[in-house]
Amino acid sequence: MNLAEQENHNQQHLLLSSSTTNDDSTVKTRRSSSVLIAIEPVMLLTEEVDDGESVATSKPFALSGILYSLLGCFLFCTASFTIKELQIDLLDALVIRFIIQIFLFGIFVVSHHYPIWIGSSKEKWLQLVLCILNGFVFLGYFIGFRYLALPDLTTINFTRLLWTVVFATLISLLQTLGVICGNRAVKRERPSIVTIVSASEIIYAILL
Questions:
Q1: Does 83 reside within a domain?
Q2: Whole-model pTM over 0.85
Q3: Number of domains composing the chain
Q4: Residue 187, domain extent
Q5: What is the pLDDT along the chain (208 residues), one digit of tens a residue?
Q6: Both 144 and 170 in a single domain?
Q7: Contact between residue 56 and residue 84 where contact means Cβ atoms under 8 Å apart
Q8: Cα 102 from Cα 116, distance rounded (Å)
């Protein structure tokens, strides 16, 4: 399965059952926010996909994702602030928090018939590794809550992308030195500037 077919397969759970119009063309309706559908009329827009079928998506589809993201950030910060004000140990509160989250997540997935673990075997293993690493990041955040103020901890937490770029740059420089040494050992001559720059760009792009 190539990349395009894999992407098409991953997007299938976002499409509802097909319907046929008067001109015998097939139209699929993309899932949209049930909250936004309830508070404002649904305005369907039709867009073409690669397989020749039309996908009808509602106008507030993009707005739905933005509102859900903002709501999630607000609830997360509110919960953290409330736990801090109540002087409850955050690691103790994590147990109850995870139980409630898993329960609600299970209900949401089952009710919407979403696939939980999709992709090839390699992608499934990478998803498992990602979940484990994110779990350690989450625990580290709440452990740091014991020693830092909430504004400082939040600032450090949301600048982790910057640290990723910094570490990727350092690793790229080390890899560049390895490329230079390897090139000189093989060719017994000084590598060209083009070779060094190309190797650095490739390594940097892979790391990011």
A1: no
A2: no
A3: 3
A4: 161-207
A5: 554 555 555 545 444 444 444 444 444 444 444 444 444 444 444 444 445 555 555 555 567 778 888 888 888 888 878 877 887 776 777 778 888 888 888 898 888 888 777 778 888 888 889 888 888 888 888 788 778 887 788 788 778 778 777 877 777 777 666 666 665 554 555 555 555 666 665 665 555 5
A6: no
A7: no
A8: 13
